[in-house]
Amino acid sequence: MIDWHLQLEGLSQSGMLRSLRIVEGGQGPKVRVNGREVLLLCSNNYLGIADHPALIEKMVAATREFGTGSGASRLISGTMPPHTALEERIAEFKGTPAALLFNSGYAANIGILQGLLGPDDVIFSDELNHASIIDGCRLARARTLVYPHCDTSALAELMARERADRKGRWLIVTDGVFSMDGDMAPLAELCDLKEAQDALLMVDDAHGTGVLGARGRGTGEHCHCLERIDLHMGTLGKALGCAGAYLAAERVVIDTLINHSRSFIFSTSLPPGVAAAAMAAVDLVDSDEGRQLRERLAQNRRQLAGALTAGGMDLLGSTTQIIPVLTREPAPTMQMTGRLLEDGIFLQGIRPPTVRPGRCRLRATVMASHDAADLAHAADQILAVYREFAP
Ligand SMILES: Cc1ncc(COP(=O)(O)O)c(C=O)c1O
Questions:
Q1: CA nearest neighbour of 370 among 318, 269, 298, 316
Q2: Other Cβ atoms closer than 10 A to 321
Q3: Which of 73, 165, 207, 279 has a C-alpha 20 to 30 A away from that of 386?
Q4: Is residue 10 part of a domain?
């Protein structure tokens, strides 16, 4: 039998033990942690709309009309008007014929890959893809070939080597914005490659949707290749401030998932209030107000990343609102996080297995709702703790 105490003790001794922190208040720029007000610098509520009155109103109204829970999975009795209205809106927003909701981004990625692919197929997966994609590849039981991060030449060579034995479908899968590095996948080049190789391209745009592109349609819009992407996965719990996720794609793909995707079939659907709020969030993202929030977010990103770069920090090629500061080893990383929290700055240190050994980091995320003075102070504090604790 596993001795869990011993296992946890081992994690603690190597500076790898994880525990939960209670955050009081909404996901605004300031929250209370351990009874003290701190600057929230680790939320994915990038546009700051998780407490927007328009979203709250829609959630309350739909909850009054339809109740708190959907009562069943989508194929039983859990498909309600807010679910189908949201799917139509997402399809229109992403420019695809259809869309399908999932209960989370994790459930979407495992369900999409398992539902569409099988043992005769090949998945080409970026080495820094999110854990849910890695788990989805395992569940699909497809042959999975991992290519070096964002390296389209290496991917092209890998595909060329595989050609002779080709049997089933080929799928390239990548994060749009990488969740721990904050850099973007070279989507236009990946589109060229998948078209040349008769493969499909799936983009997990958990961190790009709402944030990138003129209308907030994500990394594909930013890279001017939105309509060339085959499978648009995105989440509703980050920039859109709600919960859940979706795949936007061809009708036949969506129908296949309705029939084959286990995380879709065997799970109670999203509460109707969440679907209604997410619909308001898509409308907000796709509006003038959404555009202004994106501009504010970009300005905040420039300020924090600029100050950290000027202070000599390695930001690992980040070009987005996810700003990692490379700290390398777990122990100093967690000392820095602890000290920053004492100083009123709440961000998370990221350790293996989320990132590779030796690549620990402080992962800061900016929001449109941060103000310039708070970000300037945060940058000074981060630079100060780095100088104190870096190995
Ligand atoms: C790239 C990426 N995909 C998927 C997910 C999972 O999304 P969710 O939190 O909705 O389960 C995350 C969440 O952290 C993510 O960063």
A1: 298
A2: 26
A3: 207
A4: no
Give me 27's structure tokens. Answer: 């996901």
Q: What spacing in Å lies between the alpha carbon of 373 and ligand 1's midpoint?
A: 30
370 phi-psi bin (left φ>0, alpha ψ -120 to 50, beta other): beta
223 and 370 part of one domain? no
Judged on CB neighbours under 10 Å (0-12, 13-18, 19+), 377 is middle
Catalytic residues: 179, 207, 238
Q: Are residues 35 and 58 in the same domain?
A: no
Residues sharing a CB contact under 8 Å with residue 55, sequence separation 6 or more, in sequence order: 49, 241, 242, 277, 280, 281, 284
**What's the whole-model pTM score?**
0.97
pLDDT at 252: 98
Nearest atom in ligand 1 to the alpha carbon of residue 129 is 1
CATH number of the domain at 103, please. Answer: 3.40.640.10
| Ordered alpha helix ranges (H), the chain | 4-13, 53-66, 81-94, 105-116, 131-140, 152-162, 187-196, 219-222, 251-260, 262-265, 272-285, 288-310, 330-342, 372-389
Tell me which residue of 176, 140, 172, 142 sits closest to 159, measured CA to CA: 172
Looking at 269, 285, 301, which one is the last position of a domain? Answer: 285
204 C-beta closer than 6 A to ligand 1: yes
* Angstrom distance (rounded) from CA 31 to CA 123: 41
Which amino acid belongs to residue 22? I
From the centroid of its chain, how far is CA 306?
23
What is the per-residue pLDDT for 1? 58
- DSSP 8-state symbol, 73: B
Q: What is the CATH number of the domain that holds 358?
A: 3.90.1150.10
The residue segments making up the domain with residue 163 are 53-285
Most ligand 1 atoms within 8 A of CB, residue of 235, 247, 363 to mutate: 235
Which positions of the chain have pLDDT values less than 50? none
**What pLDDT was estimated at residue 14?**
83
For residue 86, the CA-to-ligand 1 centroid distance in Å is 19
Q: How far is the CA of 106 from the centre of ligand 1 (A)?
A: 6
